[in-house]
Amino acid sequence: MKLLPLVAAAFLFAGCLALPDGLNVYTSPDGALPDGTYPYGAPLATGRNYYWAPTRTVVLAPNQGVLTRAHELFHAHQHRVILDDLGREPSNINLEEWYLTQEGRSFIVVANAEGGEFAVWQRTTNPTYLEDAANTGAYYLIDPGRLKEIAPLRFALADQWLR
Ligand SMILES: [Zn+2]
After folding, report:
1. Count of H helices and E strands in the chain?
2. How many whole angstroms from 93 Cα to the centroid of ligand 1?
3. Residues facing 3 on adjacent strands
């Protein structure tokens, strides 16, 4: 396990992703946070990717692809948007207050105009607008041509957020 400086991940991106101060990116083979705790239970045999808002930590299983890394960093970005728009820390780990921000509200409008929540992505166990937006942001940063092809309205919105 090791802590990765965010700057290393940031170089992968074509766009600009506003992130919370003090963000950590941490690789864990079994889903642990840097302090050794397991917020989602475990240890997990296959690890897990998640953003843990209370300590501003992206936790990645080993050997994750750039889309997965960008997806989790986008959740950190959603944290930053909550801080900037609402002027306070998120009140829960699911970052649901992002729906109250300008970015969240405009994303819901655009996603609904383009088939609805998670309509352009393969379904997951948690197909929310928050996850839809994280996929949108990840594709915008890593594979913008693909995003423009499958979801032109989402692409246009991400282009406003992340250029
Ligand atoms: Zn996610």
Report:
1. 6, 4
2. 12
3. 26
Number of structural domains, the chain? 1
Is residue 14 very low, low, confident or very high in pLDDT (cuts 50, 70, 90)? low
Residue pair 143/158 in contact (Cβ under 8 Å)? The answer is: no
Cα 135 to ligand 1 centroid, rounded to whole Å: 8
Contact 48, 71 (CB under 8 A): no
Question: Which residue type does 110 have?
Answer: V
Burial class (CB in 10 A: 0-12, 13-18, 19+), 29: middle
Q: The whole model's pTM is what?
A: 0.89
**Residue the block writes with tokens 């729906």:** 99
Determine the structural domain holding residue 17 and report its residue range.
Answer: 2-162
Å from CA of 107 to ligand 1 middle = 15
**Residue 91 CA, ligand 1 centroid: distance in Å:** 18
> Which residues, including other chains, have CB under 8 Å from residue 120's CB and lie 6 or more apart?
114, 132, 150, 151, 154
Please write the tens of the pLDDT for every residue from 40-84. Answer: 887 888 889 999 999 999 999 999 999 999 999 999 999 999 999
